[in-house]
Amino acid sequence: MIQPSQRLNQLDEGVFQELALEKRKLLASGKDVIDLSVGSPDLPPPPHAMKALVDNASAETSYGYTITGLPEFNQAVAQFYARYGVVLDAEREVLQLQGSQDGLAHLALALVNPGDTVLLPDPGYPIYEGSVRLSGGIPYPIPIDAETLHPNFDLVPKDVLERAKLMILNYPSNPTAAIATVEMFEQIISVARQYDIFIAHDFAYSELIFDNQPAISILSLPGAKEVAVEFNSLSKTFNMAGCRIGYLVGNAEVIGHLRKLKSHIDFGIFLPIQRAAIAALTTEWDGLAPQRAEYMRRRDALCSALSRHGWQIRKPSATMFVWAQTPGGQTSYSFALDLIRHAGVAVTPGSAFGPNGEHHIRMAIVHAPEVLEEAADRIGAYLAIHA
Ligand SMILES: Cc1ncc(COP(=O)(O)O)c(C=O)c1O
């Protein structure tokens, strides 16, 4: 039998597979599971984006290879980024991606040599570590301060900072839902300059920030384009996760490196999807504010209901995730397994996001408030017996 590569063997699949299997078993036995484990938006895309998709899908000329992104897509991204106070050169500073995941999975292959150190948030979205491992790089988890949820560089040894080549960050954060501040980005850029570390910032939740707090693109800071690129996506802002379209913006040289790598890997995105994305990015949509309000209602419904059951949870300021410490100090995996088995609620164990995620779970608020209250009641009933 052919064996997988050592590279592949470094990737983990345990946790998600086992939980998915558990869910399948429960559903097959007629039980009902409220799934809070996956951050796939349940809300509709903008109508003009769906119309552009349908109109273009019925044209015979839409079905060839697109090879690269349409220039209009890059211009649409540049237009959209004006909202963050960032001016982009549409040709050189924008690269279309098959979802930000595509870029996150491949950026390290374009930049990192075997043995290079890459700083990552811990807890952090799993592909950051996966991509570094696939490239042969050495991931170094940056401890995230438990209170501010920002990186604590004082805890990173100087020799690690000296040899680090790349740093990946994510605000608003999945899984912690922390948001960035200008001061934090200033500090990160100053560390990056001092130690010559390039920054890749994942801004996938840029439009899911609550309570009128500002969405800060790292590229809006002076000189940031010299040291940073930023990933963004149509998946969460416009509920187009299944379309697989996103982009990378910022430093033209790094964009060029990823563009070169991608020219060997894929032949572009289906034209109607590109047209739908252009429509989404360039049309003023009055759905964004109600969408934020809906996520806030969901957040409040879940957190308040859990609090009534005695589980106090910090309300997230952003994203579609509630990040919570497991009650009673249970490990995140055994608690998640108990919740799916005994409460019929699927959540993601925090350990899936790195060692610092241990003793936490992540709940995706991808259901209506009433469903989330039902999930909280089920969890409450479980806690009343087991806690
Ligand atoms: C932080 C973060 N970055 C990137 C992605 C990937 O999104 P997409 O590839 O759909 O743009 C996700 C998806 O959940 C995410 O949570």
From TrEMBL:
It comes from the Bacteria. Residues 31-379 form the Aminotransferase class I/classII large domain. GO terms for molecular function: pyridoxal phosphate binding; transaminase activity. Gene3D superfamilies: Aspartate Aminotransferase, domain 1, Type I PLP-dependent aspartate aminotransferase-like (Major domain). Its cofactor is pyridoxal 5'-phosphate. PANTHER family: AMINO ACID AMINOTRANSFERASE, ASPARTATE TRANSAMINASE. Belongs to the class-I pyridoxal-phosphate-dependent aminotransferase family. This is Aminotransferase. Its EC number is 2.6.1.-. The keyword Ubl conjugation does not apply. Keywords: Aminotransferase, Transferase. It comes from Alicyclobacillus acidoterrestris (strain ATCC 49025 / DSM 3922 / CIP 106132 / NCIMB 13137 / GD3B).
